Amino acid sequence: QVQLVESGGGLVQPGGSLRLSCVVSGNIFSLYSAGWYRQAPGKERELVARLSNVGFTEYSDSVKGRFTISRDGAKRTVYLQMNSLKPEDTAVYYCNQGDTWGQGTQVTVSS
Questions:
Q1: Which residue numbers in the chain have pLDDT < 50?
Q2: Rounded CA separation 15/19 (Å)
Q3: pLDDT value at position 2?
Q4: Residue 79 buriedness (CB in 10 A; 0-12 / 13-18 / 19+)
Q5: So what's the pLDDT on residue 104?
Q6: Residue 78: beta bridge partners?
């Protein structure tokens, strides 16, 4: 059974940084792509960033140049480094692999 556990969310001021982590268990980590999505109140869940199993990355236009997705195979962890955060980045952030989703971690950007 695949499980994804996110951490690293919190409250940060505009312009600040956070790093989200997603620990993956229950599968052959290196074989699967992984992604980060987010859902703000009253909005649909949207893709933030994806990382393929061979290292290709994809970012939404709204986060390009500010966010970076990466993975550490030894730690079975997918990261989302978020810099230059804006109030519009406020949302619950979810880790995804295949059909499996994490529980989400809240990111709030506010002064």
A1: none
A2: 14
A3: 87
A4: buried
A5: 96
A6: 22, 71
List the one residue out of 13, 6, 17 whose CA is nearest residue 92.
6
DSSP the chain: --EEEEE--EEE-TT--EEEEEEEESS-GGGS-EEEEEE-TTS--EEEEEE-TTS-EEE-TTTTTTEEEEEETTTTEEEEEE-S--GGG-EEEEEEETTEE---EEEEE--
Angular region, 63: left φ>0, alpha ψ -120 to 50, beta rest: alpha
d(CA 56, CA 46): 19
